[in-house]
Amino acid sequence: MRAAFITQPGPPDCIQVGEIPDPHCDDSHVLVRVRAASVNPIDTYIRNGANYWPLPNPFVIGCDFAGEIVRVGKHASHLHEGQRVWGSNQGLMGRQGTFAQYAAIEPRWIYPSPDSVNDRDLAATALVGITAHLGLFHRAKLQPGETVFVRGGTGGVGAMVVQMAKAVGARVITTAGSPEKADRCRQLGADEVIEYRTTETKEALARFSPHGVDVFWETLREPDFELAVAGLAPNGRMVLMAGRDARPPFPVGPFYVKGCSLLGFAMFAVAAEIQQQAAMDINHWIDSGKLRAQIDRVLPLGESAEAHRLQESNTVAKSGILQGKLVIDID
Is 59 helix (H, G, I), strand (E, B) or coil? Predict the structure, then answer.
């Protein structure tokens, strides 16, 4: 099969595209013909040598997938050949990734695709959608009528947070780096948008929510705890999902006096059954039009290295060049 893979960690140029053996599909796996995949920041960290777990060699990159089942192991009787499916959590915990024509996947990481939604949109929604759902509902226990602040309402996770919070009746405040991005945030449902390049975020947040926000979702790799604690309401919750190497100062006094909570999580460490519940909500919302995939551009498998360059520029260099996900069409 044709795949994008690495044989040793390194910069984007270490990604090779070529023929490798088809994956073995035993009784405990399902063989999926992958039609679309997408790029996530964690993909670039693993490719660059983040030593989270041992990798197979060659290692197929990528977490997200959408496609159809071509073979079913006998322990996956609830799935069937020809069924369209989507999912994430591949390329993690030592599992092979999804930038390939075929992937052998455990049934617990596979979700049925709504008939109305195409593979590109499902691949673009997978990891970021599950992440947003876990943070909002599994960790922060968001309730209708509460107020959520999330940085970067057009980012991969940020756009999902905006839409999911609105889907359950929350009020949403977000940030954007340009008037065009601010307009897009409003189209996604944001009630208030702070253009952080021309407006002081702390002052605007206090103006839009003078009593504080119930949930403060930090997407930056270097969290700004001063801003977050000042902006939280009494008993507010702050969600962290990035910044493994970050060691910022923390305003302990104001945090505990307000009775706030700090909630961190890593998507790949959350139990499969909880992620399945998230996937079912995602299917409902995306099928009904309450959740829309955000795709910046679609690239062929042969441009996987370029996709990683773009993602790193956006995430690590903070260039802001992406407005949505990078989707890979699998040949």
Answer: strand
Q: How many domains does the chain have?
A: 2
Are residues 257 and 139 both part of a single domain? yes
DSSP state of 228: H
Tokens 């253009």 sit on residue: 195
Instruction: Outline where DSSP puts E strands in the chain.
Output: 2-6, 16-19, 30-38, 59-60, 65-72, 84-87, 102-105, 111-112, 147-150, 171-176, 192-195, 213-218, 232-240, 261-264, 295-300, 325-329
Percent residues over pLDDT 70 in the chain: 100
Written as six digits, the tokens of 3 are: 């795949």
Q: Say whether both 132 and 252 belong to one domain.
A: yes
Handedness of CA 282, 146, 166, 148 (dihedral sign): negative
CA distance 311 to 91: 17
Residues 225-271 pLDDT 10s: 999 999 999 999 999 998 878 899 999 999 999 999 999 999 999 99
User: Is residue 70 situated within a structural domain?
Assistant: yes
- Give CA separation, 138 vs 110, 176, 269, 271, 278, in Å: 20, 26, 13, 11, 9
The answer to whether position 151 is within a domain reads yes
- Of 114-128, 290-304, 314-328, give the lowest mean pLDDT range: 314-328
Residue 10 and residue 62 in one domain: yes
**Dihedral-angle region of residue 145 (phi above 0 means left; psi in -120 to 50 means alpha; beta otherwise):** left
- Where in the sequence is the domain holding 91, given as residue range(s)? 2-113+294-329
- Shared domain check, 260 and 143: yes
Whole-Å CA distances, 179 to 72, 184, 186: 48, 9, 11
User: What is the per-residue pLDDT for 96?
Assistant: 97
Per the omega criterion (within 30 degrees of 0), is the bond before 56 cis?
no
